[in-house]
Design goal:
mainly beta; 1 helix; 37% strand
Length: 133
């Protein structure tokens, strides 16, 4: 039986679910993903468009290039997905998953735009946050 995946935005307006064992995921370092997420890279998780169900709300959509659109929460701005025109796959942002710790990225894309310092800072000082929600 396929694993159920759920996720959504920060404010809870947009929620989704899909099934898959386990979905393919990867890091994208392209300039468009950097701008869309406000981060040095995006981690994207593939799902079949036909399997993804918006259970609460629906995302706002922005045409980010001649070949793709991006979905985000119109209330809180959380980036939710990347969708290439005519593709049977949709790529949800790993950070929008309820359990992103279950994802294991399989590769890097857009490496020509990778920032040389975007290595997650291994070896830097660490501290925990008090935020738990």
């Amino acid at each position: 039986m396929a694993t159920q995946w759920t996720g959504g935005c920060l404010c809870g307006y947009c929620r989704y679910e899909f099934a898959g064992d386990p979905p393919h995921s990867g890091y994208c370092h392209c300039d468009m993903c950097k701008k869309a997420t406000g981060s040095p890279f995006a981690v994207l998780v593939q799902a079949r468009v036909e399997d993804l169900l918006w259970t609460t709300g629906s995302p706002a959509v922005y045409r980010s290039s001649p070949i793709a659109t991006r979905g985000f929460c119109g209330n809180c701005g959380t980036p939710l997905y990347l969708q290439y025109d005519g593709d049977e796959l949709i790529r949800v942002t790993a950070g929008s998953l309820d359990h992103p710790e279950r994802i294991r990225p399989a590769g890097h894309y857009g490496v020509e735009s990778r920032l040389d310092w975007a290595d997650c800072g291994c070896g830097l000082p660490e501290e925990e946050t008090q935020e738990r929600f």
